[in-house]
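Task 17 of the worksheet. Students: predict the tertiary structure of the chain below and write it out as structure tokens. Keep your answer in the requested format; marks are given for formatting as well as content.
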Amino acid sequence: MNTANLKKIAPRARTAFITAIKARAAEFGITAKGHIEPVISGEVLQVAGFTHPASCASALKRLQQQLANDSYETLIEHVAYTWFNRFCAIRFMELKSEEGYLEHGVRLLSHPSQPQGFEVLDRAPEVIDSLITEGVALDKPALLDLLLAGNEQETLFRELLLGQCHRLHQAMPFLFEAIDDETELLLPTGLTRTDAFWRELVDEIPELDWQQVEVIGWLYQFYISEKKEQVIGKVVKSADIPAATQLFTPNWIVQYLVQNSVGRYWLQTYPESTLKSTMPYYIDHGEQASEVVAQLAELTTASIEPESIRVLDPACGSGHILVEAYNVLYRIYEERGYRSREIPVLILKNNLFGLDIDDRAAQLAGFALLMRARQDDRRLFSRNNGCDIDLNIYALQESRHLNIQKLWQALNLNADAQHGQTQDLLTVAQATDDPRLTLLKDLHQRFLNAKTLGSLISISTEQASAIEELYSTIQELSKNGDNMQRPESKKLLPLLAQARLLAKRYDAVIANPPYMGSKGMNADLKEFAKKQFPNSKSDLFAIFIERNLDLTKESGVVAMITMQSWMFLSSYESLRTRILNQHTILSMTHLGARGFDSIGGEVVSTTAFVLGNFHLSSYQGTYLRLVDGNSEAEKAAMFKAAIA
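Model answer:
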């Protein structure tokens, strides 16, 4: 994959998407100056000199509300990256259409033999039939009329593209919104032009590069690179933390981290497993003193059910680490004799957990995992009746907009209102003292600054069962509650979903955490770091070392790649003392500079390591010095030579 090419294309694409969406927004009276109220007459909506169907009114109203809550630039940026993500996802899937990633097997954004053509227009009738069969509400006669008209290709293409988005919503609602979503309103015009805002994604990126799902992560990193350059070296606002801290991890390092955490956990219990032969970056324990062997045996689980393994990436980005963890877990399930078609959903449902403060990145992480699972199960989506598969990947959301008391009354969990009971003072007092309400109030307080603090927010394991029970209750109400309960319960689900993950403890926590020194931290983050993580407050990556250890089971492991500074600087002495006195360094790969080809030079000096969340004072860890390697490839070769 030519990442240098992607590095040039993605920022240009961002500019093109933003420019086109600003122009489209202006057609609905939305500009940097505010918005113009539309005039509706019969079936026509008129605004800013443009005419639209009156059916656009509700979506336009929601856009206006967003504009009132956020800045114009934030709104445009949100819609731009949403459509960028969708076009990337469709491009990836259409090039695997022969494998059934799109049920109709037809390309939407390109043509297999005509460079500027659209196969979807050549084969429109069968695409229409396929989408209708899959449950998409399309007006077939109207679409066929557009086809026969000959001069309505732009309109037909738009309708088929949106129809495909509605079909993909059934499987991936986190990336493709429901029908009548306001982002559809701002899908720009001129979609079939040779200079359309999205064309570079097709024309300038070789089809071979799209065969690897990692292309999505690379494109996203480069998509936000301009924003990163704008904020780097400054105090970073919460909204800009993702841009300032995103860094795509080289694949061989991801393999080292996953194989020596998830793989190690399995091999510790099953040392004769064939899994070892499939893990080129796995490091054996080596010779250990008899007392250490005995201590390791005491820590080792007697048997492991594959469904019980929990893996968390608390800053998951676009999902690179989670996809590699999927690969190792799949082989574990295979070894245990599970049917191949059962394994993907079991892994997604039971084993993999991811959190990030960036909505965009979490979307792509979910997509990457589903595409990896789809590779192993051709009927992944149809087997689930086209419905979304429960993923444990969440973008952390702030709670400040939630009125817990009002939501609690609407939920009516004690069912007083529906039975027509008169609430006396005692009943009201009991409702106020309900432990579920107390729990919601506590979570509301903890997640007020979720977009700043992310996975650093601590939830007690003692609350885990109560959170799980309440989450199940609210989830049920969101589907089968009354007219008041359904919409209000949906508002609470994100709060409880993210709390569930932070209340769990994991067998392996794996991360390339954000790197941000205290000079770049905003006031809220700096104060939080000072109070909660005094040993590691100098940089976010160091704080995450401590936080990840707290998220790990007592016999579990933490695998990370971070800046190397914590190994040497006096400001991290207390952190080093904690690690040496309370935990165990199982292995460390000191990369130094030039570990990331995508950023080059001496910009970032790093170290990758695996820590046991247990203390074995006599354990002989494995330490590899790769600082003399001048590239990712050189360092990977040096690593393999050292462990051969």
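Marker's comment: Residues 404-503 form one domain. Residues 162 and 184 are 8 Å apart (CA to CA).
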